[in-house]
Amino acid sequence: MTSSSARERVRRTVAVVAAAAGVAAGLLGAAAGPSDAAESASVRAFAGVTLTTGAGISVPGPSVTLADVRPLAPGRYLVTMDTVARHVSVDAVDLVAVTVGCADKSGAKSSIGQYANTLKGAGVDRIRLAPRLMFTVTQQGVCWATARAQRINPAGTSAAATRQVVLEPGTFTIVRQVASGAATNARYRTLADGTKKWLGTSSLALKGKRFAAARTNATLPSGATTLGVTGDLQLTTCTGRYGSFDETTNRRNLCDRSGVWFSTAAGPSVRTELKVRQYAPDGVTVCRTVAVPGTASQSRISAARHHAPRQLQGTVALPAKAGCGRKVLAYVEVLVADGPAVVVHWPGSSVTVRPV
To answer: Which helix (H) or strand (E) element contains residue 8?
Structure first.
């Protein structure tokens, strides 16, 4: 594909996205009434787009807009960009990232992303990316999704060459929350100068030790007994010392210490499951802890994949029980069954709780 044809394909793609987003914006704008049920608008964001890497190792390629929905009426929204990245490069490994973000006319802004190594080879050349963000619009808002790719392994080819990663057809979904009590973990706050102050740090999940990730507190509305819970994690394996840092660790490699990392092609076996803990009226004593049905899964993250997201979603019933109050804590339980440790990246991990 020539660079001019690639640009033309992106131009046509963005035009299709803009038209579809206009339809979604109309639907969401009409759904602002407080008596309405929660409205969702799903848009086929694109028919497929090719991301071009930068011309060099670890040089990101251009950011491509996948969806852009505006204006959004005041309210709280759960925004998801769901797509599959497919490796088409001659390199053995490349990197792809998908980000969703929202902004409000008041100046509030938030974003979250997922990234993974794309791999060459039948059966491993596709990986799902589906970042989710809960955002509150107070005046008038806009939400979007972007993606970019970069080379991280030259595989003996020219380091100055560009490569490509394909994003297959995906869906950009916005669900407006009408019921009160929806909550998400606050990952950071934006300072007056526009910089982020992170409210947590990335951590290691060690073999055999259960780790509660992206802990989110919520107070249920009176009478609420059923919760919709989503959980997303950004993970990195300690199959190497590097790639295990982010903004919250001051660029310190968490894997770079004795007993934490070791080289193994198979990588760690990681079990993840959504859990909800309910407290007594005092807000301190644990009343019960339940697993969200259908969210338990276990799989390996190979050394070649190295970076991998996890997406969990389910509904759990919390019928009345003596001694239980309305305060709950939702989180993703991470257990490394075997293999090296795993980094749970705070900037890319989130849990939301929604009465349904």
So the answer is: helix 3-29
